[in-house]
Amino acid sequence: MFYKRILTLSIVAALLLLVIGLLPVHGEEEIYDKVVRLHVLANSDDEEDQAVKLAVRDAILGVTVPLLQDCTTKEEAVVCLEENRALLTKTAQDVLREANFDDTVHIEMGLETYPTRSYDSLCFPAGEYISLRVSLGKGEGQNWWCCLFPPLCLGAATVNEEVAEDACISVGFTPTQYKIITESDKPVYRARFKILELLGQ
Question: What is the pLDDT of residues 157-193, one digit of tens each?
Fold first, then answer.
């Protein structure tokens, strides 16, 4: 009986150590508070609507990258985007007009719930993020997401790993936080990633 209790306590202790080792530390949950996402919604799933959505995406990124280059925090990025909302709206409208579309453009900033999303070598946990939401027409088509700040979007791809790491560290990501979004394919980080998602919910 005594040995069974010792064995049980040992197993419980080992499990506790394992869980503690996987729990987010050093503010890993702050990943949600360090980024601004871009969310572009097409008018519909029609092939032409989807194509113009991508053209709008590229035009928006062409404007936002230089706009945000001097921002060092999410808060600064949000203020900058809010102040330039009219410019961003006109940028999207110009793309639509050039393509002979008469869809409206609606842009807003706010919290949105995102699924787990991978961008080449980066992967962000599901949860609520501040987001620049660009709706074209009815906004009922397939979405397109990326990380607007730090600037990790390059159209359909992301920046290379060295640039991505520099960009993330420059806005306050710790090395541990950066590993969470780049090494989530490894078993230990998958576990930490899932716990982080649960905390984010």
Answer: 566 777 777 878 877 887 777 777 776 556 555 555 5
Pair of tokens at residue 157: 């791809």
The DSSP result for the chain, as a single string, is -HHHHHHHHHHHHHHHHHHHHHS--TTGGGGGGT-EEEEEE-S-SSHHHHHHHHHHHHHHHHHHHHHHTT--SHHHHHHHHHHTHHHHHHHHHHHHHHTT----EEEEEEEEEE--EEETTEEEPSEEEEEEEEEETT--S-EEEEEEETT-EETTEE--HHHHHHHHHHTT--HHHHHHHHSTTSHHHHHHHHHHHHHH-
What's the whole-model pTM score?
0.73
Question: How far, in whole angstroms, is CA 118 from its chain's centroid?
Answer: 9
Taking residues 119-125, what's their average pLDDT? 72
